[in-house]
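User: Hey, my collaborator sent me this sequence without any context and asked if I could get a structure. I don't really work with proteins. Can you help?
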Amino acid sequence: MKKLILILLLLPAFCVAQDSIYVRETINTLTSKALWGRGYTRDGMKKAGAFIASEYQKIGLKPMGSSYLQTFNFPVNTFPGKMSVELNGKKLIPGKDFIVNNESTGLKGKFTLSKTDTLNYESNQGLKVTLKDKLTWSVATETTPNLTIQLNKKSFNYIPKDIKTDIENQFVPNFQAANICGFVKGTRKPDSLLIITAHYDHLGGMGSETYFPGANDNAAGVATLLSLAKYYAANPQPYSIGFICFAAEEAGLIGSHYFTENPLIPLSNIKFLLNLDLVGTGASGMTVVNASVYPKAFAQLNELNNAHQYIIKINPRGKAANSDHYFFTEKGVPAFFIYTQGGPSAYHDIFDQPESLPLTEYNDLFKLIVGFNQKQME
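Assistant: No problem. I've predicted the 3D structure and written it out in structure-token form, which is a compact way to encode the shape of the chain:
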């Protein structure tokens, strides 16, 4: 009996050691050029979803519905083609020297800029230029009639005067996406569920040559989710353990909102949900959103962490609509959103790359999640 208990205690550590390589390989796949930022051009999001569904099948997860995919549609503005800007005769590099505002329309031509204030310029043909300390991109579900270009202040030391643009946008009114949903059936209480979630979409591409890899946001979260799925598939628990990779988080939490309005499982059966987003670092600790909303669960998390010295510091945060946990909380589902801190600061830019992602706390976060879920089943 003592030997059996020892084996059970050592299982999470063994699985973590085995899956560190798998996590790295998964992040490399999700951030690859072939998946083009897991976004809205070159079928990036569709390819990423297909990859995750194939991993679910290999792992042995059961679909929540008739398949792993829960499909839905929404509008999105995309930039699939030309993305050229010349400033004062100098050709600029997309993503590094400039980005376009995500809701912008395309525009081709030569323009003279007039200064409106310290950081902003405009032409009389619907073109605006603004200077930024840091370039961060996002996703828009609508368009404006103008083109706005953000310039990296660090890229040049001259006054913007003449600008030449050749930029194409394409508004897609019914872009199809899918949440990827699976579970491991519980051994004693299969109708009770613990859910682990992570969004797999990112920003996609800006033009035909520039894409946003999204290593920390959120390839790391998906890879951690898949490694946990492997562990639970090999070690079924009394409760069912569900795994949902959401699409369209970057477009405004659209995938998770769709799921909560069209649930594949009764939301009342979810005993707790852990949402993983931006978990590829951890040198400075981690933050838990909804800590003050569920103080008992947060105390359990801290008790586990203090006993095993997993994470250097766990910071509490209140309710926030900043990731896919939010609409579940609004429906009465207890949920935490976990993100790590410290290390590389790349976020929503072209520099969020796998080579610079340290995965500082992957091992400890894995063990903390397994321990926390165990507490929820006691």
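In plain terms: The chain is about 30% helix and 30% strand. You can pass these tokens on to your collaborator as they are.
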